[in-house]
Amino acid sequence: MTLVEEYLQIRKYSEQVCEPLQTEDYVVQPVVDVSPPKWHLGHTTWFFETFILKPFSSNYQVYNDDYNFVFNSYYETVGNRVIRTDRGNLSRPGVNEIYQYRAYVDEAMVNFLANALNDEVRELLVLGFNHEQQHQELLLTDIKYILGNNPLFPVYVKDKKEVSVIQNEPGWIDIPAGVYEIGYDGTGFSFDNELNRHQVYLHDFAISKTLVTNAEFLEFIHAGGYENFNYWHSEGWDWVKSNHIASPMYWHLMDGEWFNYTLGGLLPVDLNAPVSHISYYESYAYASWKGMRLPTEFDWEVAAKHFNWGERWEWTESAYLAYPGFSKAPGAIGEYNGKFMVNQKVLRGASIATPQNHSRITYRNFFHPHLRWQYTGIRLVK
């Protein structure tokens, strides 16, 4: 596949994710962590315009000077921006204009990619591909949150599956104690937070071949897991009590039966599916209730070649920190990962919202411990 073909394929998929939406759905921002779908479409376009076309394409004319303020996410180096909580207040630019913006930038990019590219531009281009794929995952989960918090529980796509058909046989994988290599080691793309490859010592452990299911998590609920402080971190217990948490996100107890909102609408909880949309706090409490623990990110990376993964982002016990020898790139690109290495937990794997070819064993996702709107799950260690 040529660079032009890959560019257009990725760009088209973002718009395909939005095809089932009505115009009003594009604008909603129910909470700070969820961005309006039209903002994602504009921001990913702004990324290519700002970091490739403006500095490297001669005679390129910016589509709209105000868009740098509207669609800059967190790049202090690039200038002022609309604060994250106000993205839902942007009734303008309208959805049609944002699609026109995408078409304008896409045409300029296709013309630009017809030229010979130096290594710097190629690296930025591949980063742009992966950046848009990250937003495709966020786009789908943000859409689910927007629709899932509508009291009508609208269907995104009928029969949309939220589990894959790949299942492990139950059991445990024994990993012996020893020194292991961690981090990306290859010639393809990786994010800077996957570097540098380094050694860690692990004690022996056993890790589950399967993710915790909805049926297993229901046992925790029925056993009073959300009412017993002994299983929780102090901060997690405060979160439970302050927010009246009693089940995973999107679960609803109706006439004595559990339902959950899915992309296919409100359905009975699938007892065999992996539990999803839970926080690190809940994952830790469940593991504590079982007398086990969550894997560290290093446990997970060493063991992952022995089990199927990719249905759920899996919480780990690891704080999101830099690897030995990590260094930030100069300029705005250096803001991509390093400045978020505080107060967050690492998640490993991928989820059903992750685009194809956008996951690998060394990929490090990261979120604050209370967040649940992604497809997050639990794998136990003993």
UniProtKB/TrEMBL annotation:
UniProt domain Sulfatase-modifying factor enzyme-like: residue ranges: 169-305
Gene3D superfamilies: paralog of FGE (formylglycine-generating enzyme)
Keywords: Iron, Oxidoreductase
Pathway given in the UniProt record: Amino-acid biosynthesis; ergothioneine biosynthesis
GO biological process, one term: ergothioneine biosynthetic process
Domain of life: Bacteria
Keyword hit for Oxidoreductase: yes
InterPro entries with a match to the protein in the record: CTDL_fold, DinB-like, EgtB, Sulfatase_Mod_Factor_Kinase, SUMF_dom, SUMF_sf
Pfam family name, one: FGE-sulfatase
Magnesium found in the keyword field: no
Domain called DinB-like: residue spans: 9-137
Coiled coil residues, start to end: none
Name of the featured protein: Ergothioneine biosynthesis protein EgtB
Phylogenetic classification of the source organism: Bacteria, Pseudomonadati, Bacteroidota, Sphingobacteriia, Sphingobacteriales
